[in-house]
Amino acid sequence: MYKNVKKKIERGVAFPTCVSVNNTLCHFSPLASNEVVLEEGDMVKICSDMGCHIDGFIAVVAHTHVLQGGPVTGSQADVIAAANTAAEVALRLLRPRRKNKDVTEAIQKVAAAYDCKIVEGVLSHQLKQFVIDGNKVVLSVLSPETRVDDAEFEENEVYTIDIVTSTGEGKVIMLAM
To answer: Which DSSP category does 167 fall into?
Structure first.
């Protein structure tokens, strides 16, 4: 695709591939020595950050799958539907003159409609060329522990939207590794 362009376009890997299973939130990149075996009913997030960069702008993608033969039902279906719907709503609100707090409020309402919670501490960031985390941030959950500056979206800005949902309390347990 980029072979016949007149200027050199840098491209490459932006993030490592991550495979997070069940309650593991993100950024788990198993080593070859890892002997975890996936089982029927496991929820697998591939991957929290799998991406490439084209001319210094990253493109990041994540997908969640439940390992089972039939349709996904119950709380697993709710948490996936909540994340998907919240992401769609957030994307529609990323318009000039809208504010980051508009997105935060909207994704909270979507999660509540599915009887789910948005996980605290997850931030969505503005992206800039050759810079992963820009200055403007969208907070996923309003909390006394996490504060971000109010921001207004402008034309030609680029954002990565991270929506992480939970059927529990939406709290992240810190683990020492």
So the answer is: S
